[in-house]
Amino acid sequence: MVNMNTKLIHEVRAVKTQKELKNIIKAQRISEKVLKDVLKYLKTGVTEISTAQFIENSFIKYGAPVLAFPPIVAFGKNTANIHHEPNKTKLKIGDTVMFDFGCTINSYCSDMTRTYFWGKPNKKQEKIYLAVLEAEEKVIEKIKKGERRASVLDKVARDFLNKKFGAKKFPHGLGHGVGTVIHEWPNLKPASGDILPEGCVMTIEPGIYLKNFGGVRIEDMVLITEKSCINLTNVSKSLKDAILF
Ligand SMILES: [Mn+2]
């Protein structure tokens, strides 16, 4: 009985009103400004921690001081660690660069991950990037065609990536609901029985992580509509735009 009620509350919370949606989108637009600024801040030798501080200060500057979670900034091999905390690692030419951050507006969160290359990526970096991007786009296409089963959507990305890189290189769920908490119902993962309701906001965030090499994650937030979805993230994902110089 308790579980049933809990689920019901989560289901109700998942469906966003126009006002709630406005807050999420505003939080996302501010994150996009911060992303634009931090890309200009980057230079060879800068540390992850100073970059993370720059991100936090930028959110303050844009009037969104309450973050959805501590920003993830990872350079080089650190991008293979999904739980990486920014440290004194310095940016060097050839590094993969990963940003995962979001802020809150009136308590509503945003969430976005982008991966870049500081200089021309090698073949392996390029291969991972294009595969993760393709996995993400396959899922979004599937949602646009009406698929709402969480486990099926997770499988679309997971099967595609497992085939290319072997199992266990994508060690987290495909995505999650976003609202007043950063990870809320529904959950896109293999054993999930969740069905995405119209009006919920989901992250779609496949990734590939190769230990002692690096990783790529690409994360968008999408609004689930009756027959399709709307991508709320307005930042390029093309490989061309991911190469910073
Ligand atoms: Mn996320």
Short description:
This protein has 245 residues and is α+β, with helices and mostly antiparallel strands.
Write out key terms for the chains shown.
single chain; 245 residues; alpha+beta; Creatine Amidinohydrolase; three-stranded antiparallel β-sheet; 6 helices; 20% strand; binds manganese (II) ion
What does this protein look like?
Helices cover about 40% and strands about 20% of the residues. The protein has a three-stranded antiparallel beta sheet with strand order 1-2-5. The protein has a three-stranded antiparallel beta sheet with strand order 8-11-12, with helices on one face. The protein has a single domain (about 1-240), classed as Creatinase/methionine aminopeptidase superfamily (Creatine Amidinohydrolase). The protein contains six helices and twelve strands. Helix 2 packs across helix 3 (about 50-60) and helix 4 packs antiparallel against helix 5 (about 150-165). It has about 240 residues and is an alpha+beta fold. Manganese (II) ion (MN) binds near residues 111, 203, 205 and 219.
User: Compute the gyration radius: what is it?
Assistant: 17 Å
Proportion of strand residues: 15-25%
- Oligomeric status: single chain
Q: Give a short account of the largest sheet.
A: 3 strands, antiparallel
